[in-house]
Design goal:
alpha+beta; BirA Bifunctional Protein, domain 2; 2 domains; seven-stranded mixed β-sheet; two-stranded antiparallel ribbon; 19% strand; binds phenylalanine
């Protein structure tokens, strides 16, 4: 009776040896050890064997089972290795081929320049405030010393929403809002979008400005000069010169237009600076006492300076861009350069 186990064992040994794929190994596993497998059948028929033979037969049967399991295990491993090798051969990866570049976007040039400017002023102790783009006539004009019918309003091509509501034409209204809600000393910058009904190579209906102002006791024009000099030289280089030209804004007195030495010709004269050697970059001045009064400050106690600049204008000068409309045409060939 033990003979049949011997022949099962040697047959299984032969068959497993020949199995040359994972599938073949799997089939043999089923054939010998599966629910209806040869070994399983033998185990089931143990009960029918005479009691005195059962023990010895059972033990031998178990040995054969373990033998088959082990052989199958070894074979399975070998077949797996062969198949893995085959797959590696077919799907060979050439790690020396350069990878595909995933095109990554980047910040818009206006945002980049604005970020740089904000970084410079925050390093000087200014902090950022924001105001609404849809603004009351009161903050955009009246509280900045531009009463209704004031001729200075003509300079700002205003989009009116209603008689009392406008799209802000500059960031200066933030000065008043901040002063109303805070007491000096103040060191504030206010970046944001502004709107003017105007369009040509140097004007677009929506652009960005950055307002800056400092209010305290004994603030003078030399503070303004010092702050602007640091700012301009960090953006345009340490050899850039500044020039203050007398000007007029209703909300500053005295007022100045600030020029920088031409970033293209360094002052020698070229077509960008129209042979003057200078480029206009921002407006500034000492905050008008009338503005302090309307914000609720005592002009006898406080003084301050303010300045305002167009961000796109700074970017144009920095990168030598001659048409402001390029910023918002979304031409990738333009934007990819930044
Ligand atoms: N708000 C002015 C403009 O838009 C710029 C400015 C700001 C001038 C602050 C003086 C002081 O033209």
């Amino acid at each position: 009776m033990l003979n049949d186990l011997d022949s099962i064992k040697s047959l299984a040994g032969e068959e497993i040896e020949k199995a040359d794929s994972l599938k073949a190994v799997q089939d043999l596993k089923v054939r010998y050890l599966g629910k209806k497998g040869i070994i399983t059948g033998k185990i089931k028929s143990l009960a029918a064997i005479a009691k005195e033979d059962r023990r010895e037969y059972g033990k031998s049967l178990n040995d054969v089972k373990i033998y088959i399991e082990e052989l199958l295990g070894v074979r399975e491993k070998a077949c797996k290795a062969v198949e893995l090798n085959k797959t590696l051969q077919i799907q060979r990866i050439d790690v020396t081929i350069p990878g595909y570049r995933i095109p990554a976007g980047h910040l818009h040039p206006t945002t980049q320049v604005l970020g740089e400017i904000i970084g410079i002023f925050t390093s000087l102790g200014f902090h950022v405030e924001e105001g609404p783009e849809v603004e009351l006539d009161f903050y955009n004009f009246e509280a900045l010393n531009m009463p209704k019918e004031h001729p200075a309003r003509d300079m700002q091509d205003t989009f009116y929403i209603s008689d009392d509501v406008v799209l802000r034409t500059h960031t200066s209204p933030v000065q008043v809002r901040v002063m109303q809600n805070n007491t000096p000393p103040l060191r504030v910058i206010a970046p944001g979008k502004v709107y003017r009904c105007d369009a040509d190579v140097t004007h677009i209906p929506m652009f960005h400005q950055l307002e800056g102002f400092m209010v305290d006791k004994h603030i003078t024009m030399s503070h303004l000069k010092g702050v602007l000099e640091v700012f301009i030289q960090r953006v345009f280089g340490a050899d850039t010169k500044l020039r203050f030209r007398p000007s007029f804004f209703p909300f500053t007195e005295p007022s100045a237009e600030i020029d920088i030495s031409c970033v293209i010709c360094r002052g020698a004269g070229c077509n960008v600076c129209k042979n003057t050697g200078w480029l206009e970059i921002l407006g500034a001045g000492m905050i008008n006492p009338r503005v302090f009064e309307m914000a609720g400050y005592d002009p006898a106690q406080y003084t301050g300076f303010a300045f305002g600049m167009g961000i796109e204008r700074v970017a144009m000068l920095k990168y030598g861009i001659d048409d402001i409309r390029l910023f918002y045409e979304n031409d990738k060939r333009f934007l990819d350069q930044f």
